[in-house]
Each structure stands twice: as structure tokens, then as C-alpha cells.
Amino acid sequence: MSIVTVYDFELPRGYVDSAGQVHRKGKMRLATAGDEIHATRDPRVMSNPAYLTVVILSRVITEIEGMESLAPTMIERFFTADLAFLQDMYQKINNIEPPTMTVVCPDCGKVTQAPINFTREG
Asked: Which residues, in sequence order, are bridge partners of residue 61?
């Protein structure tokens, strides 16, 4: 039995390079513990925890069509729709399930599971 460790993707908008070329297809590999550890030790992440996503994605995205390499500065220039797409893909392929809690509808009394959002808004 083999395990799939690299996944193809196509960005919704695409990365626009300095020559104006649009690059949409790429590959992302499964994350390792080393990826997470390396990212948390990155000085940019230590000074700005929100940068964690950028560093991790720059490590697990192995290819963007036509690009020689991928650096965090390239991830910074992705459109927000593409960044959101890649974050979602990262969570899905690495089986990162958001935590849930049991909630009861105040109107009908139906019991269901709802995801817990730990991000702060505003």
C-alpha cells in the first residue's frame, strides 16, 4: 500500500510574476513535523505569528509551473483568494480537522456539531 504525499493544485487566480506571466498549476506535499518546527523558529514568525502560514506554505509547495523556486516573498504576493485556497488545501491534505462543539438551536432545539473558530475578528 502506498501513501500519496504530493498533490496537484490549480490556483483560482494565479501567481503573477514580475514579467506579468500567470502561473496557476502547482504541487503541494504533506507537511512534516520539521516543517512546523522550522516555521515556528523563523525570525519573521517570531516577530509576527501571522507570518506562520506564509513560511509553512513556502516549505510544502514544491512546485509552481514555470517557477524555479518558491520563497516566502512569493507567497506574500499571492492574491488572497489563492492564499485562502492553499490554506484550505493544506488543512485538508494534512487531515487537520477543526475542533467542534455540540450546540442546540434556540428556536427548534435541534442538536448539531458546529466548528469552533479561534480567530479574532475586528
From this structure: 28
Give the contacts of 10 (CB within 8 A, at least 6 positions apart): 24, 25, 26
User: Among 36, 6, 30, 33, which residue's Cα sits nearest to residue 91?
Assistant: 30
Is 80 exceeded by the pLDDT of residue 116?
A: no
pLDDT at 45 over 60: yes
User: In terms of Cα–Cα distance, which of 21, 15, 20, 23 is closest to 65?
Assistant: 23
For the chain, list the strands marked E by DSSP.
6-16, 22-29, 61-64, 100-104, 111-115
The structural domains of the chain, with segments of one domain joined by +, span 6-115
CB 100 within 8 A of CB 113: yes
